[in-house]
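Me: I hope this is not a bother. Any chance you could explain this protein sequence and its structure tokens? It all follows right here:
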Amino acid sequence: MADLRRLGRARRNSSTRFELTDKLDLESFRRELQRPIDRDGPWPLHEKVKRRLSEAIMLGVWSPGDLIPGEKELAQNFQIAVGTVRVALAELVAEGLLTRRRRAGTTVTGRTPHQTLSLHYQYFRLHGADGSLQSSITPIVDVALDTATERERQVLRLPDAAEVIRLTRLRIVAHKPIMVDRYTIPRSLAPRFPIDRKKAPNFIFAHLLENYGIRIVAVREEVYAELATSFDRKHLNLRGPVAVLVIDETAFDPAGTPCLTAHHRARTDNHRYVNEVR
């Protein structure tokens, strides 16, 4: 596994170093906001608009209080109907990410989003100690094929010797690693999943829906604390015997079939886990 302490430094040519910075992420998403929406795939167009706008908010393209472009401008950039943009904006307002005022336009609230699965896999729910929504980048550290453990076979209802995909990524805020995410996905559900960290998707739920038609409709979480391990201390830059927040998740499709598990380990000295359900 690559040395995570190299994250956030200037771009380098070596394949063993990550090529991600906050500036590059923001510039990339600003360009993305000027591009047409892809009409392929099972997602409705207004859901794709929501996803693109919410990602821009998450990455800090727009800050709390910022006025976002109007319906007509967004529709022209995305090359879709104004009505489609209007539906997407209305849902983001209902979910707490945006607010609309007559004659003033649509602004970013900076509030914790209402917890819905449409944003569950996009939003970084470790917020600042003051409750503010944090902008983060999520570089993928490692992707590999492996044999499922006995525990994974039980939780994911897999046969003996079943293959799974293991994906590890970081969540970085202000150049500091805050959380490690470790996903386990049955290979049988995603046979074409790229086993290459440079090609692997950051948004796992969206990838499963767009490429395999697997829609996640429920997520069960277990939240607890543990003493930091040597893995935590190395990758989260921790010192001494400190506690980390642990979140274990199992995601389910409409039939109640478990589709993946996720294991998150986070430092909480300057962050809080926020889960708002309405």
About this structure: The CA atoms of residues 233 and 240 lie 8 Å apart. The longest strand covers residues 163-173.
